[in-house]
């Protein structure tokens, strides 16, 4: 019977990791999968996380099950950063559960929406390829609108039209910050408009917040989402600690639910618990426990936030350097990269150019032309600009 299954291609983004590893060139450049890199090209464990892990190793006295909701100490310790230090639960209307990474949070959010009778999710395009893939797997429909204008800013007109055409019972998926793959975030004024149109349309916001702290800062990166939450009765928030705690392979994330009142939130979360139980039963503990220890310790929290600041500053420097090289690369507009946020931006290269830059110069980027800005360093950015000029010109 299993022979009825067709061969599937490897995930294109994750396959790039293996292609890059297999390339023997010493000066190859990895701008593929979204992991942060230092100016030496390394992805070290955060010092604050390392210290927390040491403490965990010494102090943890049991590995008995916690339940489908995972480590609620972690879930609650994160809330002041996500929802604001002032009444983070909004009078008990917001609560959450741990999930295996941001993907686990998204899976729960979409499946909860489906359980609530929602079938259509209005989604900007391009988006992270796993968004439509999860929706398709759940038998849900992604209703696309254009996200990015050619000048590297957000296409608000397309969003307005998509929401105007929304049907009763639709949801909208929004990237809270550091849009993946374009780096094109909404301005504060655009968020104000989005808040109004979403609230007027009565659609359910599902917000993917996977890069908090890596765009403009912890508070600024959550500001748009918080405005949405202040204006709507219900929302789902999918959170990832992959990047802002550097916990990628530990799979640390959360799903937060904002209901009309605390009772509704608790009821929705019981559905989340069942969905967790039938999918992964309980989330992995180690990474979430380490993040909780960081958040419970003022000294480690300070260290963690300083590490995040340094990452953000380094990526900003790379963005500025790239944008300043605009006049050296004919045929590509690099200037908007300086105004975009987070790990990613999209270069307007065609498939042949993306293949040529890989084969000729050892530069690996996603097939969409997405680059991981964090893969650039003071040491390799000059070579990257020359490679770009060669293939784009
Ligand atoms: C990315 O977009 O590169 C990251 O979110 C990693 C992933 O799982 O795709």
UniProtKB/TrEMBL annotation:
Could you tell me which InterPro entries the record lists for this protein?
Aminotransferase_I/II_large, Asp_trans, PyrdxlP-dep_Trfase, PyrdxlP-dep_Trfase_major, PyrdxlP-dep_Trfase_small
Gene3D superfamilies given in the database record: Aspartate Aminotransferase, domain 1 (3.90.1150.10), Type I PLP-dependent aspartate aminotransferase-like (Major domain) (3.40.640.10)
- From the UniProt record, which GO molecular function terms apply? identical protein binding; L-aspartate:2-oxoglutarate aminotransferase activity; L-tyrosine-2-oxoglutarate transaminase activity; pyridoxal phosphate binding
* Chain ranges of the Aminotransferase class I/classII large domain: 27-388
Write down a Pfam family by its short name.
Aminotran_1_2
**A GO term from the CC aspect:** cytosol
What stretch or stretches form a coiled coil here? none
Entry cofactors = pyridoxal 5'-phosphate
Q: Keywords on this record? A: Aminotransferase, Pyridoxal phosphate, Transferase
- GO biological-process terms attached to the record: L-phenylalanine biosynthetic process from chorismate via phenylpyruvate
Q: Identify its protein family.
A: Belongs to the class-I pyridoxal-phosphate-dependent aminotransferase family.
Record note on quaternary structure: Homodimer.
Question: What PANTHER family would the database entry show?
Answer: ASPARTATE AMINOTRANSFERASE, ASPARTATE AMINOTRANSFERASE, MITOCHONDRIAL
In Swiss-Prot or TrEMBL terms, this protein is called Putative aromatic-amino-acid transaminase
